[in-house]
Amino acid sequence: MFTGIAEEVGKILSIENYTDRYILTIQAKKVLEDVKKGDSIMSNGVCLTVRDFSTDDFKAEAMRETLEKTNFRYLKVNDKINLERAMRPIDRFGGHIVYGHVDSLARLIEIRNNYFKFEINDENKKFLIDKGSVAINGISLTITKALDNYFEVSLIEETFKNTNFNDLNLGDLVNIETDILARYIYSFKNNKERMDENFLLKNGF
Predict the structure, then answer these.
(1) Contact of 6 with 85, CB cutoff 8 Å
(2) SS3 5
(3) What SS3 state is found at 165?
(4) Can you name the residues that pair with 2 across neighbouring β-strands?
(5) Bridge-partner residues for 48, per DSSP?
(6) CA pair distance 7, 71, nearest whole angstrom
(7) Nearest CA among 118, 88, 82 for reference residue 100
(8) pLDDT (tens digit, 9 = 90+) per residue, 64-118?
(9) Across-strand partners of 153?
């Protein structure tokens, strides 16, 4: 589990393209301080498992399903990506609950001062509400406006400077993870299922 607060911005050093997967080599520093093989590092909102590492980079696999559902299929060498290590029980919870499971892609359609407007056209837009939470490329943000097939977020300068938001251009696709709490509430409301021990176990609690 992650908080959606980027620890650093890494860089894609190489992409090995196989039939069923990519093997990515990602330059990093902060997230490697206590890393072990098998650790999880959220990369642009995608939970990746460390396959190997050195003092200044790590390797991870992105399977074909990940490539089809995320913006990883558009990655190029030297692209910058947001990185965050998995949350420890003793850490402060600075963002919101983020799993690193991308739900949708959204397209950046407008930048206005510190406001970023995105277009989203699939069923997951129903989980995006005013003042709700969303993870964009792994970054926890608050939705300032959600209407029809678009939503807006506002970035403080700290977030803009320390994430890959400052490299986004109009038309770029970003990874979206909707708020898990919104998804559970929607599911519970529509399924009319009793919230008891069996419900919680079935839903991963």
Answers:
(1) no
(2) coil
(3) helix
(4) 98
(5) 41
(6) 20
(7) 82
(8) 999 999 999 999 999 999 999 998 766 666 678 888 999 999 999 999 999 999 9
(9) 116, 143
